[in-house]
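User: I'm writing a tutorial on reading structure tokens. Could you give me a worked example: one chain, its sequence, then its tokens, then a sentence or two explaining what the tokens reveal?
Assistant: Sure. Here is the example chain.
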Amino acid sequence: MTQPPIDPAGFMAQVEALRPDLLRFAHARLSNAAWAEDAVSETMLAAMERPASFGGRSRLKTWLIAILKFKLVDQMRHHSREATVLVDEDGEDIEDLLFAADGHWRQMPADWGDGCAALERREFFEVLEMCHELLPSLQARVFMMREWLELDAGQICTELAITPNNLWVLLHRARLRLRGCLEQRWFQSATELAP
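And here are its predicted structure tokens:
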């Protein structure tokens, strides 16, 4: 069964109507608003240049977000040299600060209490985004591609030209750094503010 021809004007109007949703998706995944806008513009242009590619097998929004995920990766790759690599003041790896030589915690992590309640607060996501920006650039890219863009390991390894083992090490270190940052800047301050 063949698909009926797509009305270009109607298709363009539908794509344009989804622009705010695409911008929210992109802004939630890229810390740079200009990069997010560029990714959305490139997504919309790609969709409008080839409306026949949309076969109607999914919702238009789902199809556009699938395109947008690749455009976000393109933006990260294009701007990767602009990212700043931040290190600890003393130059030590955070794993050395958190774990003793035998692999045990130097100091047990703070109790996070009701983590689900934190997820309902906008401020938590602002702190999480700030902590993400403090990650070294490659760790930040890998974490974003895996956790926020939900790309599979093979795609990430191909895109960044890294081995699967390297990917897992980078993800592990990113998660450790994020945990430490969140404990310091969110959960510890939330505990101090509690009555």
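What the tokens reveal: Confidence is low (pLDDT under 50) at residues 81-91, 191-195. Residues 164-193 form the longest helix (30 residues).
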